Amino acid sequence: MSYLFVTGMSRSRRSPGNKEQGLAMVMHKNFEGPAVFEMLNGALEVARQEKRVNEERNIKILVAQMHVVKGELEEALQKFKLLVQENPRDFRPYLCQGIVYSLLDKKKEADEQFEIYRSLVPKEFPQRGFLDDVVLAAKTETREQLEKEFKNEFSYKT
């Protein structure tokens, strides 16, 4: 289920959110929950101050994804919806919303989000095949299978 982390996927070669993404996951697995959001909010503020728009957006997506990792699915959905309002042409929040709706066992809503994702993701996008596999898994696996995979991938390792 590591496919949830699509923040760095953009048309550019540079993926500014990757270092924050890796650090956030390490912090999460080390039981540093609140510190994850403090670190991400700090990185978000730096990106805003330095007017790095793409990095700012990537971090916002990562913040929403970390809410999913923490099991805060409704909070994550709200953040993804705000991201759609900010830029309705970015396919990533639609993909993530589809995954969250699948975790919530809301297949109709998930299908709607996946359909929008499909309409927006460029045909030449390098990771499109991988992301299409993600959509297929989210649509065909049961909620229990998704939750089990998710917990195995993101739960604390002790």
UniProtKB/TrEMBL annotation:
<dbReference type="InterPro" id="IPR011990">
    <property type="entry name" value="TPR-like_helical_dom_sf"/>
</dbReference>
<protein>
    <recommendedName>
        <fullName>Chloroplast lumen common family protein</fullName>
    </recommendedName>
</protein>
